[in-house]
Design brief:
single chain, 235 residues, alpha+beta, four-stranded mixed β-sheet, 9 helices, 4 strands, disordered C terminus
């Protein structure tokens, strides 16, 4: 797949007129486009593609679709159905109303490219830069960190097998999410950190703060730490 970075086109006139008629006050997708822009550009992802070959789908659109998809907990198929059917998505993505979209596999391929090119965190970093520029997100504010339950692919065990497995080392991982929570500003996820399942939440604070320092988003003196959600036993 090849990429020739292009300037981001404006919202087509017909799409804009229809979207504003349907949502006079806008909605989340339209506000993102109006207030924060498209968040991404083709140049952000130029290193992921060759300069020769079949033209790739526009990467800034793919990145924004991934954000919308995550925000609404949609599968790839559902995300592409929304792309074809929803006026607000077409508005945010500068698409004509009759744009047919593309095959859902394109999203999976794009995610693979992001991971292979070590650009997966760029989606978050670019968004945070846009949120910081108008002063919606500032350093030394209130933050809280929490971890998910243990995530792992395990086989079904009966009670006797569980007892036998208990002394062995756990496998899997936890995801630690850090969120800004200043009362006067929006609540934003500002960092994502992954650790192995047996690790303590407290041990994740140092790498989390190192990453926040690199983003100039260290918290203020008061920090909220919420313990991991206990993993329920299977009996």
């Amino acid at each position: 797949m090849s990429l020739q970075p292009q300037a981001i086109p404006p919202v087509p006139e017909t799409t804009a007129r229809t979207a504003h008629a349907a949502f006079p006050r806008g909605n989340r997708s339209m506000v993102i486009r109006d207030e924060l822009g498209t968040l991404y550009t083709d140049h952000d992802f130029a290193t992921l593609f060759s300069s020769r070959g079949q033209p790739a789908e526009v990467p800034w659109r793919l990145a924004l679709i991934l954000v919308f998809q995550f925000a609404e907990s949609l599968s790839d198929e559902q995300a592409l159905e929304a792309l074809r059917a929803r006026i607000d998505w077409k508005y945010a993505l500068s698409l004509d109303l009759d744009d047919p979209g593309f095959d859902p596999s394109v999203l999976s391929e794009f995610r693979d490219r992001l991971i292979a090119g070590s650009l997966e965190l760029h989606l978050l970093d670019a968004m945070l830069a846009h949120v910081k520029s108008p002063g919606l997100l500032k350093a030394r504010g209130r933050q809280r960190s929490d971890s998910t339950h243990v995530l792992a692919a395990v086989r079904a065990l009966n009670r006797l097998q569980i007892v036998g497995e208990t002394p062995h080392q756990w496998t899997g991982y936890k995801v630690h999410l850090t969120e800004s929570c200043d009362e006067e500003g929006p609540h934003c996820i500002i960092h994502v950190h992954t650790s192995v399942a047996p690790g303590l939440n407290y041990d994740a604070l140092d790498p989390i703060h190192e990453a926040l320092a690199a983003r100039e988003l260290l918290p203020g003196p008061s920090i909220w730490w919420m313990p991991a959600t206990p993993t329920p036993l299977p009996w």
